[in-house]
Structure to design on (785 residues):
């Protein structure tokens, strides 16, 4: 049988000679991955691929937006033009700036319907030149997003293919199927609170003003990747404490544990 | 010293052809005056061959089926003359605005830039044709000689110094524009050409025709010298079009706008400028105007004064007519004029064109012209106020921001701001509920204990606050709030009740509004 296969292969190659250069050779795409700004996620997934569609999904309050803001922060600080198509008008510029996003480099499209979001994404992909385009469908019911025809995702994939654009979609469940080059699932583990009085940790009613929201731990799992074979990792996000307590160290760095 | 004169022969007809290029090979006659006393005031060669005569009645001219009869348009003539001046300024800064359809350029010192006078004349002809005009161009060492040669000789004429009398001798005396009485006298004498006029003895000529005769004699011989009367460059570029028939649809309007934009952009290009803003103005006519004309004259004056104005401000100076047409179309689609259009006026504000070179090591950025069209398209979809770049304002009012036009940093400044990602901890992101959700909060010892909103009820397992803010109390829109960060665990039954906002356990921000005396959920951490 192997001998027959080799003969068959040689026969096909001979027949296609001059027309198809290498019919049995898989074309290798050089995919450039860029950092998300979270070292654990970069170690897990190798960063966000350019010229490809990336999906980040998870339930509300899971840390999807923190991951998006981190990636946007890195891209805008690298002077790339970025766009955020906000499916439910939930973007908070104050939080974004606290997260390090250069708002001047960000085009924010405030949509009211899913149709508007997809059409705006189409326009921006056709315009070209954007380094990062994020489509935020986080607050749109999964049943609605599920109705989006698969050819829309194929169109998006084809539109970014061969360009330096990163197309990132935030949602509650993955819908792009094989069109997505990278799929990450995020989940919030637990929240962290700081207090000046350790005795009050359990009973926050006594002195709520002495407590401070410190952040939450986020669990990230890689569901699909065309370039990396990682599994899962955790990272922590933190609240910018400038507005609450000026005595605290801003953007405190912590050791992250991962798998 | 050398001067170039540009003369547009039959300028009234050329103006109409400039606005309607399809008429270039057709027989055209122009009528002027009030109906029914229309008279033919200009016609091209083809129309004259068909039998059209100047002074003929308009209704009579309409009997010639092969002749296109159009109304004379003073606005378009003005715009065409302005275009001719722009052509002149594209070559020389010293220009005389001699007469409608005629300008004179001082070419002193320009040969070092344009190599030769022949080359300058060719450039002027090429640039004139780009703005839709086909003039005669004459270059001479004398202003008047250049003017007369341009009037009398078709195409490009170069008169070397000293050869003016010979070159002008064959021209008819009409090119000197004598008064009617003197022209009749010269014709009675049998003087038809400039050469014949210069052959007359000057003393006897002055005795019979006076100073004007001497003046004509000097000009006919190319000996009259005068200095140039300089014109000031225009700072606004306006093109107008008066329509014979009112327009109500966008498609035919786009067609006309494209023509006007092409003309404005060609003029801007001739002056090495671009447009930073466009002002589009329509004179509108009501559908019922004709009826109201009959009924009441006062209402007519009211309807005639109706105008529609739209200003298109561009983030970067542009002069690409196709891109500008797309932007104007999108603007008109979002805010169409309320009436039929009878006149279009397009004015461009000039600015220096954007000059920049992309760096090898700076990230790719969207093409500005393309980006502007894309943003206009998205604005048509989501509204003008919902697309742009958010900027924080100097206030402590929660959630306050302003939208500015998106204008990513230029390559140079972006390159200087480029930073490496730091190893800092990721900031927790906050998502807003717009509008905020009304909540019912139960408190224990002044601290939120149970929260319910949108039909879901949850227990507060951790809270931090209150963070009190207030401001603008001297204004009607002041605020005073107590803000809390809370971690809510929802009851399982409540989770099912909330639909799309999702009653997920997590971190929320709630606040008590002292002005409205109610609790609200501002958003959640994600």
């Amino acid at each position: 049988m192997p001998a027959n296969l080799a003969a068959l292969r040689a026969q096909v190659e001979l027949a296609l000679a001059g027309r198809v250069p290498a019919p049995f050779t898989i074309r290798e795409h050089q995919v450039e991955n860029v950092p998300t700004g979270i070292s654990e996620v970069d170690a897990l997934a190798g960063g966000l691929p350019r010229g490809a569609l990336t999906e980040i999904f998870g339930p509300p309050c899971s840390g999807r937006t923190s991951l998006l803001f981190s990636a946007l922060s890195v891209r805008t600080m690298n002077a790339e033009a970025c766009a955020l198509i906000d499916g439910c008008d939930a973007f908070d510029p104050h939080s974004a700036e606290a997260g390090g996003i250069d708002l001047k480099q960000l085009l924010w499209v405030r949509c009211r319907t899913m149709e508007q979001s997809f059409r705006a994404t189409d326009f921006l992909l056709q315009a070209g030149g954007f380094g990062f385009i994020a489509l935020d469908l986080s607050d749109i019911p999964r049943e609605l997003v599920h109705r989006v025809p698969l050819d829309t995702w194929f169109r998006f994939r084809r539109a970014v293919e061969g360009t330096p654009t990163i197309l990132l979609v935030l949602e509650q469940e993955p819908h792009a199927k094989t069109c997505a080059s990278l799929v990450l699932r995020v989940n919030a583990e637990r929240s962290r609170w700081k207090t000046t009085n350790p005795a009050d940790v359990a009973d926050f009613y006594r002195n709520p003003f002495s407590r401070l929201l410190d952040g939450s731990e986020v669990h990230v799992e890689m569901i699909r990747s065309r370039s990396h074979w990682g599994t899962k990792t955790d990272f922590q996000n933190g609240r910018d404490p400038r507005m609450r307590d000026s005595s605290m160290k801003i953007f405190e760095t912590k050791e992250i544990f991962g798998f | 010293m050398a001067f170039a004169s540009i003369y547009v022969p039959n300028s009234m007809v050329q103006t109409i052809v400039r606005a309607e290029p399809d008429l270039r090979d057709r027989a055209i006659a122009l009528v002027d005056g009030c109906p029914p006393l229309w008279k033919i005031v200009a016609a091209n060669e083809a129309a004259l061959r068909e039998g059209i005569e100047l002074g003929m009645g308009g209704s009579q001219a309409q009997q010639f089926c092969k002749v296109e009869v159009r109304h004379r348009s003073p606005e378009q003539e003005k715009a065409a003359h302005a275009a001719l001046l722009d052509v002149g300024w594209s070559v020389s800064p010293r220009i005389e605005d001699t007469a409608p359809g005629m300008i004179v350029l001082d070419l002193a010192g320009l040969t070092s830039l344009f190599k030769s006078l022949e080359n300058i004349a060719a450039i002027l002809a090429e640039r004139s044709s780009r703005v839709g005009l086909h003039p005669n161009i004459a270059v001479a060492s004398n202003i008047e000689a250049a003017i007369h040669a341009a009037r009398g000789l078709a195409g490009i004429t170069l008169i070397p110094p000293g050869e003016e009398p010979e070159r002008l001798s064959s021209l008819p005396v009409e090119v000197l524009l004598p008064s009617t009485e003197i022209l009749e006298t010269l014709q009675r004498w049998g003087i038809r050409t400039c050469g014949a006029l210069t052959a007359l003895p000057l003393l006897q000529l002055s005795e019979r025709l006076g100073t004007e005769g001497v003046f004509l004699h000097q000009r006919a011989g190319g000996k009259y010298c005068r200095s140039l009367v300089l014109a000031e460059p225009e700072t606004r570029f306006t093109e107008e079009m008066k329509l014979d028939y009112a327009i109500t649809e966008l498609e035919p309007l786009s067609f006309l706008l494209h023509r006007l934009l092409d003309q404005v952009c060609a003029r801007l290009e001739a002056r090495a400028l671009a447009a930073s803003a466009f002002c589009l103005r329509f004179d509108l006519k009501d559908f019922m105007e004709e009826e109201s004309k009959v009924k009441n004259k006062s209402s007519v004056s009211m309807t005639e004064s109706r105008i529609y104005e739209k200003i298109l401000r561009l983030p970067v100076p542009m002069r690409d007519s196709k891109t500008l047409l797309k932007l104007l179309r999108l603007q008109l689609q979002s805010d169409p004029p309320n009436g039929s259009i009878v006149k279009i006026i397009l004015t461009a504000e000039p600015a220096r064109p954007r000059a920049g070179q992309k760096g090898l090591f700076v990230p790719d950025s969207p093409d500005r012209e393309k980006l502007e069209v894309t943003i206009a398209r998205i604005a048509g979809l989501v509204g003008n106020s919902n697309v742009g770049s958010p900027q924080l304002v100097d206030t402590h009012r929660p959630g306050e921001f302003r939208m500015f036009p998106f204008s990513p940093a230029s390559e140079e400044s972006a390159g200087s701001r480029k930073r490496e990602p730091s190893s800092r901890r990721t900031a927790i992101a906050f998502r807003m509920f717009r509008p905020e959700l009304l909540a019912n909060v139960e408190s224990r010892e002044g601290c939120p204990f149970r929260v319910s909103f949108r039909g879901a009820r949850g227990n507060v397992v951790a809270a931090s606050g209150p963070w009190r803010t207030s401001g603008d109390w001297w204004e009607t829109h002041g605020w005073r709030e107590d803000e809390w960060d809370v971690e809510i665990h929802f009851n399982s039954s409540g989770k099912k009740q909330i639909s799309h906002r999702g009653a997920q356990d997590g971190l929320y921000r709630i606040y008590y509004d002292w002005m409205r005396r109610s609790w609200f959920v501002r958003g959640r951490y994600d």
Remarks:
- The mean pLDDT of chain B is 86.
- The first strand of chain B starts at residue 3 and ends at 7.
- DSSP finds 18 helices and 21 strands in chain B.
- Chain B touches chain A through 75 residues (CB under 8 Å).
